[in-house]
């Protein structure tokens, strides 16, 4: 057998490994400096100014090779500059330098960057906010003052001066003019006789200055806010033959063939004021900020006068600096080449070291893996035997559990069927006694209501058990129709609005889109969302919040509906069992049947969807229903199916501890009456008389009454005339002038019975004026009559609001509101994406305010109102053969012809084609 002979160097493997480790350690000693990314957004005027600013920045950046400098030029456009700054935020920067052209447009985005924690250095032109890290720029006020003092000395403190200003509204132009005017006021012999506005560029001076110079031939000196304007002023003076009479002072003092220094040396202008672009100081300040060194928030740059006495010196200095900068850049390029060579060599060294270590480690791993593989193979053989035995045992247990479960389900199903007959015999007589026995005493009526409520609760449990059995045996079919899921969920939420309001719980509906066309079974999803909302209402404390959100998820080809509450959450031990049948939880404060969530899960799966939840103890729970955008064809039905009436109300489904107040529960009407009365005894008396017949809320002063009226939109208001601070007449006037409350009938109560006072009350807008003492029975009947008349008025508005008739004349606040609403809807009928938010935005109000107003005036929702106008318009268009049914559907904003046909048939009981055939043949 051959013998493997290893080289002697490999036998000394310990020394070899140590040497490799030493190489790696030496290579890793040099820790690179932290890399910074600085974004520079500039939008200033003047190419020479920008070049000087960038040259200064590049010069200072040559000392910081670890800085990555990125610049975006907005080309004088503030809108483009805002867009480029947002691009910087997406790309990721450590610090932002901003040089703006206009201060106000760029202020909001600068504040946003600053609030995100990114340092912001403002260069040259300030923003209108103090939300920035540091400012670097010239002192324009000092520039103006220096220019005035120099002009006074040049003219011997006597002469006529003309000022060429920068762009109106820009901070440099404002400050330079202010400093110039302040300093010039100290010289009585100096007069500022004229001003010329510009846009900082020479052509604007060439167009405007000649007329001003002709009007003022006495001008001795022109102060231009930059050197480009000064050059334009010189050209105008030369055209008029006055270049030797008028002295010209500019601002900037930039180097270069067209800069202010060259203009002074050539004798074109008399002097220029140095206004440093501040590029070097901006980079210095930025690096102090990034390196967490002390820095100043305000960094003003000084100025000086450059004239014939010092222009040659300044020119030589700038040329010398430019030459030095070129040398530095050349040295940097050589340094970068050396660093690149070093980095490549270092990479090769790392690769070689890693390869050697990898080869040694791989040999050890192969040997150990071979030994471990033999042990694992023997262990797996034993485990396979155990798994086969356990699988057989599990199959036996599963079959036994299936048989036992089937027996229990059969028992519950049969028992549920047996319960329906006695429940029917209980509910029938109780309902008859409650409706036909007004002479019953209050105690007996209360007991009968208790019997009815609990009988209906039992009926609900029976129905849920039967649904459970149908799901289990697969006999609950899905018959989906195309509809608007947003409107469907909103209608279910309307049922919960009253009990939530009575417990102080805020209901929020946040659909991501105004309409979501979807194929779904209303009977199935009605039970799913009802159980989820009922569950949320049970476990949300008073003053809490329930949020229902809805959005399309294109990546999953699904629609996601979440129900979030702010209750106590679900404990750890309950989460694993929350969807189990008849499980009620270990820490539940409101015991239920334990079937609601399990039924919702089964129905959601039946609808090809999923139901999941997340919960944090003490913060609430969120249940998420995910429905597919497309259903199999066999689950679709062309017939619209109305949601099943569950046979119980939201209040009856709640546990006793969470049900509404007793007075609301026994109320004989859904109408809400607001009582505004400062006398506690009279207030309590009114509540006592009204509460058996209506829902009642109270306020003890006019201001609070107005708040409650705008918030809850009551059906009627009873208000006292004599109220503290805000009288009843003022309350009525404000109610009638506010479009949110203008439709509410108002009854005024007062002790003042003079006829002129009654006339004053009616003129203020009151619907009824009663004097104290009043007959409670008369007040009650008056309230009923006003509410009845209001319902008739709603019906009248609904009849008038049709595209077949003229728009309602805006004679009252309500009529004007409805006219505006109708006009907006009719103008946007072709938009399929038109939603409540769009209409509310057009009216300048919120979605909730629009919904409450339309509900109060018309007794219907905004979505139904829009749909009604569309369908009425459809009837007109279908009377003519000019458009096909599909063209009518798309012209009126329906998402598809099938959805249009389904909606049309649901409203008029005939399809569009049948309607057209019926009327065209006639």
TrEMBL record:
<dbReference type="InterPro" id="IPR036890">
    <property type="entry name" value="HATPase_C_sf"/>
</dbReference>
<keyword id="KW-0175">Coiled coil</keyword>
<keyword id="KW-1133">Transmembrane helix</keyword>
<keyword id="KW-0804">Transcription</keyword>
<dbReference type="InterPro" id="IPR003661">
    <property type="entry name" value="HisK_dim/P_dom"/>
</dbReference>
<keyword id="KW-0418">Kinase</keyword>
<feature type="coiled-coil region">
    <location>
        <begin position="373"/>
        <end position="404"/>
    </location>
</feature>
<feature type="domain" description="Response regulatory">
    <location>
        <begin position="672"/>
        <end position="787"/>
    </location>
</feature>
<keyword id="KW-0547">Nucleotide-binding</keyword>
<keyword id="KW-0808">Transferase</keyword>
<dbReference type="InterPro" id="IPR011006">
    <property type="entry name" value="CheY-like_superfamily"/>
</dbReference>
<dbReference type="Pfam" id="PF13407">
    <property type="entry name" value="Peripla_BP_4"/>
</dbReference>
<feature type="transmembrane region" description="Helical">
    <location>
        <begin position="348"/>
        <end position="370"/>
    </location>
</feature>
<keyword id="KW-0472">Membrane</keyword>
<dbReference type="Pfam" id="PF02518">
    <property type="entry name" value="HATPase_c"/>
</dbReference>
<feature type="modified residue" description="4-aspartylphosphate">
    <location>
        <position position="720"/>
    </location>
</feature>
<dbReference type="InterPro" id="IPR036097">
    <property type="entry name" value="HisK_dim/P_sf"/>
</dbReference>
<keyword id="KW-0238">DNA-binding</keyword>
<feature type="domain" description="Histidine kinase">
    <location>
        <begin position="414"/>
        <end position="631"/>
    </location>
</feature>
<dbReference type="InterPro" id="IPR018062">
    <property type="entry name" value="HTH_AraC-typ_CS"/>
</dbReference>
<dbReference type="InterPro" id="IPR004358">
    <property type="entry name" value="Sig_transdc_His_kin-like_C"/>
</dbReference>
<dbReference type="InterPro" id="IPR025997">
    <property type="entry name" value="SBP_2_dom"/>
</dbReference>
<protein>
    <recommendedName>
        <fullName>histidine kinase</fullName>
        <ecNumber>2.7.13.3</ecNumber>
    </recommendedName>
</protein>
<dbReference type="Pfam" id="PF00512">
    <property type="entry name" value="HisKA"/>
</dbReference>
<keyword id="KW-0902">Two-component regulatory system</keyword>
<keyword id="KW-0805">Transcription regulation</keyword>
<dbReference type="InterPro" id="IPR005467">
    <property type="entry name" value="His_kinase_dom"/>
</dbReference>
<dbReference type="InterPro" id="IPR003594">
    <property type="entry name" value="HATPase_dom"/>
</dbReference>
<dbReference type="Pfam" id="PF00072">
    <property type="entry name" value="Response_reg"/>
</dbReference>
<keyword id="KW-0597">Phosphoprotein</keyword>
<dbReference type="InterPro" id="IPR009057">
    <property type="entry name" value="Homeodomain-like_sf"/>
</dbReference>
<dbReference type="GO" id="GO:0005524">
    <property type="term" value="F:ATP binding"/>
</dbReference>
<dbReference type="Pfam" id="PF12833">
    <property type="entry name" value="HTH_18"/>
</dbReference>
<dbReference type="GO" id="GO:0043565">
    <property type="term" value="F:sequence-specific DNA binding"/>
</dbReference>
<feature type="domain" description="HTH araC/xylS-type">
    <location>
        <begin position="819"/>
        <end position="918"/>
    </location>
</feature>
<dbReference type="InterPro" id="IPR018060">
    <property type="entry name" value="HTH_AraC"/>
</dbReference>
<dbReference type="InterPro" id="IPR028082">
    <property type="entry name" value="Peripla_BP_I"/>
</dbReference>
<dbReference type="InterPro" id="IPR001789">
    <property type="entry name" value="Sig_transdc_resp-reg_receiver"/>
</dbReference>
<keyword id="KW-0067">ATP-binding</keyword>
<keyword id="KW-0812">Transmembrane</keyword>
<dbReference type="GO" id="GO:0003700">
    <property type="term" value="F:DNA-binding transcription factor activity"/>
</dbReference>
<dbReference type="GO" id="GO:0000155">
    <property type="term" value="F:phosphorelay sensor kinase activity"/>
</dbReference>
